[in-house]
Amino acid sequence: WHRRGCLLGLQVLAYNRHTYETVAQLLLITIVPAPGGEPPYQGEFLVGNRNVEELLPVAAQEMFLQATAGVWEQDDLHVINVTSALDRGGRVPLPIEGRKEGVYVKVGSWGGLSPCLASATSPQSRFRCSLGQQPLASCYDTFAPHFAIRWCNLTLLQVWPSPTSPGPVWGSGVLEEEGDFQPPTEVPPRDLLPGYLVTLLVPLLVAVLLCLLLGHLMCCRREGV
């Protein structure tokens, strides 16, 4: 840790999906807490026609935020996280028709959620999704045609800052003169003999019974005896 944040070293291992060539690079990332903290209103969208590397550039994220502003009705949106759908249990797409892996994009805002997003996650919309239908939406889809949003996978969150508990109060380290030091109460001795006998005798008794049963079957159950 230093004065302005945390310096993190991250080794990235990438591969070419066509030639399977790999390359490693060490990135030094400075993590600085957001000035206003984490935004309380967050929404996570599943983009079905994109791979994760296509939404990492700043220009692609700006385009996505402009499309999000059309349905969120807020102007302070920013991207919190970009995650591949493969990391959420998604399947690797078939290498046909240009199919994509899918990307989860989490967007945050300090303003409230729009009625359009609320209607898309309403119980009626969830019921339509369970029937394989499109959810209800009270606004025009501004993501099309650049981003294909899977509206049935839309997740809305309201994150409120948790109250911080006061830290420990450190004393001077010197015992006060009043009173004497009282050591902790001694633990009374425990009798471990019954437990030891049960642990030892029960398996021994079972082994003896098994030996008697096996001897009876092999010796007394023979033909002619």
UniProtKB/TrEMBL annotation:
- Annotated keywords: Membrane, Transmembrane, Transmembrane helix
Q: Which Pfam families match?
A: Sarcoglycan_2_C
Which superkingdom heads the taxonomic lineage of this protein's source? Eukaryota
Q: Where are the transmembrane segments?
A: 193-215
Q: Does the keyword Lipid biosynthesis apply?
A: no
- Residues in domain Sarcoglycan alpha/epsilon second? 40-156
Q: Tell me which GO cellular component terms the UniProt record holds.
A: sarcoglycan complex
User: InterPro entries under this entry?
Assistant: Sarcoglycan_alpha/epsilon, Sarcoglycan_C
Q: Which PANTHER family match?
A: ALPHA-/EPSILON-SARCOGLYCAN FAMILY MEMBER (PTHR10132), ALPHA-SARCOGLYCAN (PTHR10132:SF16)
What is the name of the protein in this document?
SGCA protein
Look up and give the organism this protein is from: Jacana jacana (Wattled jacana)
